[in-house]
Amino acid sequence: MKKYYIKTIGLIIIASFMVVGTGICGSGYDYIDITHPFLRKIPIAIPVFKEIYPGDDTKRLSRTASDLLSETLEFTGYFKILDRDAFLVDMQTVTSLANVNFYNWTSIGAELLVTGGGLIQNNQVELELRLYDTFKEKLLVGKRYKGLIKDQRKIVRRFCSEIIFFLTGDKGFFNSEIAFVSKNSGNKEIYVCEFDGYNHRQITHTKSITLSPAWSSDGKWLAYTSYAKGKPDLYLKHLRQKRGAVISKKGINITPAWVPNKFELAATLSFSGDPEIYLLTGTGKVIKRLTKKRGIDLSPTWSQDAKHMGFVSKRSGTPQIYIKDISSGAVKRLTFQGRYNTQPNWSPKGDKVAYAGMGNGRNDIFVIGIDGQGLIQLTHDQGDNEAPSWSPDGSLIVFSSTREGLSRIYVMTAYGTDQRRLLALEGEQTEPDWSPRIVNN
Amino acid sequence: MRKKLLINLAMVLVIPGFLFTVSCAKKTIKDDTSLVQQAEDEAAAKAAAEKAKQEEMARQQAIEEQRLQEETESTASARNLFLNENIFFEFDSAVLLAEAQAILKKKAEWLINNSDITATIEGHCDERGTNEYNLALGDRRAASAKTFLMDLGIAGSRLNGISFGEERPVDPGHNEEAWAKNRRGHFAIN
Fold first, then answer.
1. Which of A132, A199, A410, B67 measures 20 to 30 Å from A320, CA to CA?
2. For residue B9, what are the contacts with CB-CB under 8 A and spacing of at least 6?
């Protein structure tokens, strides 16, 4: 615990500055229309950062940090990153970051501009980063960071988070991770990578079949199903400490979903002879049974306020998605189109559910309002697409797809645009689960 | 089989008996000069009889061995059939088809004849559909087979169901032929 505390202190914002009339703070939301955020991408210019101090280290820093900032902003789907070849200004010739000739940027079509200056000295990185509105000729966000060389990514991401917060009012997903299943080692095991696919690492070493990772809402626990003891049991694992629990009842112990902001989870157990959803403590004890219909019930997903639980049931004859009101116990059917709708995932904003729906033997990703209105299909005619999971800000959806052969992890905006592969390891990758924002990472 | 064996056995015992009777009768009418010749003849006949007996015994032993082997083989093949004969399901269904019920009846018979055996019933699915749902469907398939066998008198404690969902296909193909093979209930002996 202490280690992470110190690490966070190591990366400090040594200055935060905005133009006079700080009233603009909070009025930035009109840059990105929340109701149609991906309708039009904002053209943004991100020139290579100015080298404040001579030396190869600084030269490398200014290049890699500005590239990373471009990639990270592009990943959000909000921006059109302008080609540097078209730029009229070389930042290395600029005398001061504070002097910007906005005409040089508006004339190439840039509406936003990020400039930066960096240096590396005594193993320390200093980066000054600024976001400008080129038409209003205004500094929108300005920050100066200092940290260790290895903290470069963290600094760039933190500034991206500032930009997105200014433009949308939401902190984005830059502190989040994605858990998934990979057959990289020959067996299905749980892996975790950063939101952009970077820095993947193997979490389980069960040498058996391990499936369905699910993050707790504080990002500290993963629950998953594993055949480590020969049958599908449920494992609850703390990611930093040697703590955990195993739920190993007769039959299947599958599809965990943590209750937001509680040390409890819902999961499917079949010890009664029938797969039903139960509420469990974080130590693996049954609190109560949540579904009571004969036939398959599984795959719980919680609304952010934990007042409602979506799930899959075959009670009507085909697998469909239902919503249960936890306090009243009332259950209503959500999906009526198609004969096979599974893998519901409740959006963090609370108004939608993403799921996989099957037609002609293949699944596609759909999103539907929790009132049953506004059904949209996000993937079309590109292999089998499964296991949608929302980013913590609700702007993106991660999913698995066989569009390029073996199943891999892909990302798209919540409106189905900008579909791209997140990463490709050996063997197939399936069942991604996007973490909440992880604090102290 | 057994009848034939008895006849053969009788032949083995009776034929040498006749041989001796004949030679004994001969002895009384032959004169002394032929005594040496007679002794030689007798010795030869005895040796021949002994050889025939040996051969017959070897033959009997071979038959018995073959019979035992056949018996073991048929026990083994019943066991193999129990292990290798899968039951199959329709897509997204855990309902036992008529053919599956017929196979399960044979399995029940074998389990009754082999009361010391406990078995695992694996429920499997094809690759269509999603992993989690298929885990539940495989669980239902194993449960259907288990309930059917229990109705035929097999103790539930001897049957252990386990779902593998779509994780262990026997045919990796992506067509109906492969899917049909993969939607199965498979039996294993614990």
1. A410
2. B60
> If DSSP states are collapsed to H, E and C, what string results for A329-376?
CCEEECCCCCCCEEEEEECCCCCEEEEEEEECCEEEEEEEECCCCCCE
Contacts of B164 in chain A (CB under 8 A): 209
**Cβ <8 Å between B140 and A318:** no
CA-nearest residue of chain A to B176?
A361
Interatomic CA distance for residues A406 and A404, integer angstroms: 6
Pick the CATH number of A177-434 from 2.120.10.30, 3.40.50.300, 2.60.120.260, 3.60.20.30: 2.120.10.30
Token readout for A116 is 């930066």
Could you tell me the two tokens for A346? 């409740």
Show the tokens assigned to B132: 């989690």
A–B interface: beta-carbon pairs under 8 A: 76
Under an 8 A CB cutoff, do B132 and A232 touch? no
Q: Which fold has domain A2-168?
A: Rossmann fold (3.40.50)
Bin B10: left if φ > 0, else alpha if -120 < ψ < 50, else beta. alpha
Q: B85-189 belongs to which homologous superfamily?
A: OmpA-like domain (3.30.1330.60)
ipTM: 0.90
Q: Is there a contact between A252 and B136 if contact means CB atoms under 8 Å apart?
A: yes
Instruction: Give residues with Cβ within 8 angstroms of A130, minimum separation 6.
Output: A97, A114, A115, A116, A139, A141, A142
Tell me which residues of chain B have a pLDDT lower than 50: 18-28
Helix (H, G, I), strand (E, B) or coil at B54: helix
pLDDT at A39: 72
pLDDT in tens, A10-39: 455 666 665 433 444 444 666 776 666 677
Listed residue (A164, A119, A166, A158) closest to A139, CA to CA: A166
Q: Are A31 and A170 in contact (CB under 8 A)?
A: no
Nearest-angstrom CA–CA distance, A275 and A272? 8
B42 contacts: CB under 8 Å, gap ≥ 6: B23
Count other Cβ atoms within 10 Å, centred on residue A67: 15
Contacts of B133 in chain A (CB under 8 A): 296, 298-299, 312, 319, 342-343
* Beta carbons of B47 and B54 less than 8 angstroms apart: no
What is the Cα Rg of chain B in Å? 32
